[in-house]
Design a protein that fits this description.
- The complex is a heterodimer of chains A (about 150) and B (about 525).
- With about 150 residues, chain A is an all-alpha fold.
- Chain A has helices at about 5-10, 15-30, 35-55, 80, 90-120, 125-140, 145-150.
- Chain A has a domain at about 10-65 and about 80-125: Helix Hairpins (Orthogonal Bundle), CATH 1.10.287.3510.
- Chain A has seven helices and no strands.
- In chain A, α2 runs antiparallel to α3 and α3 (about 35-55) packs antiparallel against α5 (about 90-120).
- The N and C termini of chain A lie far apart (about 60 Å).
- Chain B is about 75% helix and about 0% strand.
- The longest helix of chain B has about 30 residues, at about 345-375.
- Chain B is an all-alpha fold.
- Chain B is globular.
- In chain B, α13 runs antiparallel to α17.
- Chain B has a domain at about 295-510.
- Classes of the chains: A mainly alpha (about 150), B mainly alpha (about 525).
- The interface of A and B includes residues 104 and 116 of A.
């Protein structure tokens, strides 16, 4: 039992916990909400959690911003640089790409919602589902004779 | 580049040395060019020419890595693992060839079909998206950098959503199909990124070969294992692995015919390739969790997919929808081949990837031709057309036979190998006898749903007021090219089998590791 409530472990891994909470929140919204726009919002939260996950894994304890003083204008004390620890910039750069992809996805999703609204007159998933079931039923009725002839 | 026997050291001095990059770059440049020119008349020729160039490049790449070994191309001369590496080996080249071949063959068909199904103001943008989709698929396969896979995966996915939504001109359900696909595809891709993040946490690298080395060094730990789970689920969504396939039937049914042809033959295959790459090259199957995942999860799911999807397909009343369900079943065969985890099984999976690509592209083209002439793919609409459109329906028959796996067609070889692979493992585990029986039985289900189409096309009376005539030549030529190759690869099996076998061996060997980092690589 002692291991379950290890406070040091929890605080040490707090960013993972927050990442998981945020991720589950996003995923839950995507699954649960019937409003198409809200689904996109959920998707965004879900993706944002992953961005944060990436950013957090780049952090090095005690690390500073990963900018190396190469300018000749400043006198660089080689000795002073020895002890400096930098955070890992690579995950940050990677996630920049993923953020761009996320924006593209969001805008495409919203564009699709506009078109859906134009042709279905609703952005509620259940209404759309009803309309589509109606359409499928019409199709089936229209083309049913074949189905019955065979089965 | 003369010596490609084992490792082609890369010194990029001629255009020939840049082939791995050009493979992706040619369609990638065609896309903005089409948009900038904005001309409806130039869009298609540009798309066709760049696809054809991509096909030529992929054949040249195939020729240089056919005997094994790989070509390592370093982007901008930054040596891996820090720089992005494109690594072409037999498996890559094989899938690249499939994708670019299908992409090229489909375009003449698309010319007629797109004119009919999509409003003309969208044509140039449509072809631009098509080129982006091709870029994404080729890039996913060509790259040797794990994060690069994600970027290309998203390029292809985003353009796919747009392409699917173009079906809205005929049926508004295409919009919701595209939306559903967008939601699920994005969740899948994000899962994939989470997996990559975990791998990066554990290893500090993103180059696939380097990842493999480091994972092998540190062995399995929880981070690496959960990374594997995320990657498999994420890619499983893209592959349409059985319980994650929900987006597929709707997207394939309501997308424009040409898009369905292209996607069915390439998109799931490229994702499947990435899945294989991760299972075999990044995570070696020596790890118990990889083997367990394959045997406990992939194998049963593949068999369920084979049966349930075939069963649903048999009850469809729409030809296009039926083929979409059949695709899920066929993905099951490929996953089964992977899960059997032997050389024969993998060869069968790779062969089936190619053969199913050919057959399904052919059948969906047939649907496209029927839709062009009758306005729909319901069995009532296409009944009795065997006499009115003999060449189209003849090609459909060839494709259908290959889908069942009748001897003499390409589909037979891969299914035969699959059964053989299952039987080979009977001595270890007698349950594999059941697996091989399942393959045969589910093929019988394929007979049922394919036969229904034959019956509708040939044994029914045509609609009395039907004015359908034979499909135009622009459609017939690509269809018969594919029908011809279905028959050719069914009769002359050596060529494809040798390549697939070499590719399977390459995959089973695991990663070939990093090149010696002391060697200077890339463009000077």
């Amino acid at each position: 039992m002692g291991q379950l409530f290890n406070l040091q472990f929890l605080t040490g891994h707090i960013h993972y916990l927050l990442f998981i909470i945020l991720m589950m929140t996003g995923l839950f919204i995507v699954v649960d909400k019937t409003n198409l726009v809200k689904k996109i919002i959920g998707l965004n939260i879900f993706q944002a959690s992953v961005f944060m996950f990436y950013v957090s894994i780049g952090k090095v304890t005690g690390g500073t911003a990963p900018i190396f003083p190469m300018d000749d204008k400043y006198h660089v004390d080689k000795e002073a640089l020895q002890g400096i620890v930098y955070s890992n910039p690579l995950p940050h750069v990677l996630i920049l790409t993923a953020i761009v992809v996320g924006i593209a996805t969001t805008s495409l999703g919203l564009a699709l919602i506009i078109r859906i609204r134009e042709s279905f007159n609703t952005i509620d998933e259940e209404d759309i589902l009803n309309i589509e079931q109606e359409m499928t039923r019409d199709d089936n009725n229209k083309h049913r004779d074949v189905a019955e002839g065979l089965t | 580049m003369a010596n490609t026997a084992l490792v082609a050291e890369h010194t990029a001095r001629t255009l020939y040395d840049h082939l791995p990059l050009l493979q992706v770059l040619v369609p990638f440049c065609a896309a903005p060019l089409i948009v900038l020119l904005g001309s409806r008349r130039l869009a298609w020729p540009l798309a066709f020419v760049s696809s054809a160039v991509a096909l030529i490049i992929s054949v040249m790449l195939m020729m240089s890595v056919r005997e094994g070994g790989y070509i390592s191309y370093t982007m901008g001369g930054w040596s891996p693992p820090l720089g992005i590496e494109y690594r072409i080996d037999t498996v890559n080249a094989y899938v690249l060839m499939l994708i670019s071949a299908i992409g090229t063959v489909v375009l003449p068909f698309a010319y007629v079909s797109v004119k009919d199904e999509i409003p003309s103001k969208n044509h140039s943008l449509f072809y631009a998206c098509w080129m982006l989709c091709l870029t994404g698929l080729l890039g996913m396969v060509a790259t040797g950098d794990a994060f690069n896979v994600f970027v290309f995966l998203e390029i292809s996915s985003l353009s796919t959503y747009v392409l699917v939504a173009q079906g809205a001109a005929r049926d508004r359900r295409a919009l919701t199909a595209a939306y559903d696909y967008l939601i699920m595809g994005t969740i899948g891709a994000t899962f994939f990124v989470i997996g990559l993040g975990m791998l990066y946490m554990a290893t500090g690298t993103l180059n696939m070969a380097d990842l493999a080395d480091r994972i092998a060094d540190q062995g399995a730990n929880r981070t690496v294992r959960s990374g594997f789970a995320f990657i498999v689920v994420g890619l499983g969504l893209k592959v349409a692995m059985f319980p994650l396939h929900l987006w597929l039937p709707k997207a394939y049914t309501f997308a424009p015919s040409a898009v369905t042809v292209f996607l069915s033959a390439t998109a799931t295959k490229a994702a499947l390739y990435v899945l294989m790459r991760f299972i075999f090259s990044v995570y070696h199957p020596d790890f118990s969790f990889t083997t367990n995942a394959l045997e406990i999860i992939f194998l049963p799911l593949a068999i369920i997919a084979m049966f349930s999807a075939s069963f649903i397909a048999a009850f469809q009343i729409n030809f296009k929808r039926m083929l979409a369900y059949s695709s899920i079943a066929q993905v099951g065969y490929m996953l089964l081949g992977i899960a059997i985890l032997t050389e024969t099984g993998l060869t069968a999976a790779l062969l089936h990837m190619f053969n199913h690509g050919l057959a399904k592209a052919l059948l969906f083209m047939g649907v496209g031709a029927l839709v062009l002439r009758t306005g729909g793919a319901f069995y009532t609409q296409i009944s009795g057309l065997g006499r009115k459109m003999p060449l189209t329906c003849g090609a459909i028959v060839v494709g259908g036979l290959s889908l069942i796996g009748v001897p003499g067609t390409a589909g037979f070889l891969s299914k035969w190998l699959l059964v053989q692979a299952a039987l080979e493992r009977v001595s270890e585990n007698s349950l594999f006898l059941l697996v091989s029986i399942a393959i045969v039985l589910s093929s019988l289900l394929a007979v049922v749903y394919v036969w229904r189409v034959f019956e509708v096309l040939y044994l029914r009376e045509p609609n009395p007021d039907s004015t359908a005539t034979e499909a135009p030549l622009m459609m017939l030529i690509p269809m018969w090219i594919l029908a011809g190759s279905c028959l050719w690869f069914g009769l002359s099996t050596d060529f494809l089998y040798d390549i697939a076998n070499q590719a399977a061996l390459g995959l089973l060997d695991g990663s070939m590791g990093m090149l010696d980092s002391n060697k200077t690589l890339g463009v000077e």
